[in-house]
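Chapter summary example: a protein plus coproporphyrinogen III.
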Amino acid sequence: MPDSKLPGSSPHGGSPAAPGAGGVPREEVFLRACRGESVPYTPLWIMRQAGRYLPEYRALKDQYDFLTLCKTPELATEVTLQPIRKLGVDAAILFSDILVPLEPMGVGLRFDPGPILSHGIDNEAAIDALLPVDVEESCGFVMDAIRLLRKELAGVAPLIGFAGGPFTLAAYLVDGPKKPAKGGGFDAVVRMAFQRPDLLERLMSHLTTVTADYLSAQIRAGAQAVQIFESWGGILGPREFSRFALPFVQEVIRRLPKDRGPVIYFVLNGGHLLNLLDDSGADVIGIDWRTPLDEARRRLGNRLALQGNLDPRALYAPPERLRQHVDDILQRATGGHVFNLGHGILPDTPVESAQALVEFVHTLSRTGIEER
Ligand code: CP3
């Protein structure tokens, strides 16, 4: 099903990397930026780059439900490739969802359009009833999609795998089918942290094992980088984050294969936690739009690369103002930098704005080092 005609014609030009030529192969630009190495231009990808703002995604969603797209390797591959063709971003991210590994733990899952879980894991019996997960067996469709994608993407763009951070998965599990409270959200997991820290740690240990196995399997299947989405980490204060989120992410990263590519750790709403993230074990820290990159750099230190951090709503601005917002972020970025939005692209974003973003990032950040 995947259309193998990927752009040899992205905005920054050139056909897929030809070995032997000088400069940085196109496929390497993102990986080099993650490692803080010099690059011909700032690479970018967009969180939720495969999704509802693309008409070709909506067309597939008319035919298949979301989990069917995730679980059918040919369809997941097709959706993953759509933004590569349409936008010319510098990395592909596997099309799936952070909650996919919950089902094999014994938790029913459906999407409408947000996730709805069959039951909450909010007591000792429910935590003890969670099943161990053989990720190769129960999430084999993910590894199959990764293997297919690596063939399609060879010489074009690297592939990012991903998982939810263990604390973020816990936030969904403890909350269960309940809708998050208005304005707050995921109160139940924070309550458990204070009332029954022993229980939350038991749940976190289980999620740490599953997440480490899941990301390791993705890396073995061919994911060249992985991102850990800690979408709910920001609801914790520094003290609780240091106890209930960070040690488990560190353990996940420690357990990954030695020959892994870069690990990106993205804590949404995590400005107040940045001074804790230098030793998360990740190579790149994702920054949302609430913290300017120069300030993030001061709080985090100089060692790691940064990813971010355009406000997704900036894509509603007319092109000239969008260009200024992009320029401002590029000016503030020092050290390794991967451009991204500060959170996922919104469903009603005009596709032309996303295309303009790619063009602006590439042209405004050119360093004069040649890619090939
Ligand atoms: O980035 C990508 O393009 C890869 C695909 C991807 C999806 N979800 C597809 C998706 C990724 C990386 C995710 C991660 C994810 N899923 C996160 C972390 C990032 C974040 O947004 O904070 C979270 C919290 C989830 C859980 C989830 N899945 C929610 C809250 C929702 C509904 C609301 C929403 O934002 O769309 C989903 C559904 C979902 N996941 C959709 C897509 C394309 C929409 C499904 C549809 O088309 O109806």
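Key point: Residues 327 and 364 are 7 Å apart (CA to CA).
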